[in-house]
Amino acid sequence: MRDAEDGMDSWERLIKLDPEREHKEAMLDQVCKAQVDALVLGGTWGVTARNATDLALALRARKVRRPIWQEVSSECGIAFGVDGYLFPIVLNALDVDVLTRNYVRSLRSYRAVIPWNRCEAIGYIVMNDACAVAKRSRAEIPRDLEDVLAYAAYGTRLCGMKTLYLEYSGKFGDARVPQEVKRAFPHIHLVYGGGIESLEQLNCMKRFADTVVVGNALYEKGLSWLNASTCTM
Question: Which residues form a coiled coil (predicted)?
């Protein structure tokens, strides 16, 4: 079991829950049973302090011992009751101010109380032009692998980011992409997210990515394939 203060570099598998979506009791029970290292609360649209905090408290009520972190996407959506905060920076965004403005506004209000030792900035490379974050940030999707590697170099070498996130959100990506990114940048913590709906797909991406994210499958197909026979909260 992971300690609540462990950061992303210690997580191999995580579930991302969208605070704006409906979470039935049975769904939260499945989340509790899932064999993952952490739970992350995050969404592109409609995240508020209230719905994010309510979701965190609903998980806490089940005595979940896994780390619960929030991926921040809105200046009015900072959750309470979480163990830490992730701040995504979309490296291939054309509208670079979208998240930056939100972060600055958030920091005006919360800078003094944010636990900075439990905050992480993550360089996102958005790979699917149909996903919500691509539309919100007007992401310019990489044309080829060299584009991906250039964005990775920008994030890690120029900006000093320790974590890169390949965001396919809603679509299963080409395993050669994380393979080549990890080969070129073995020192970084590489995260893959998008289209994971089976243990086979998860294991495929886990061969190259340090962390694999399960998201939409929770809402569309459930997590019976990820769950053990008993809850290990």
Answer: none
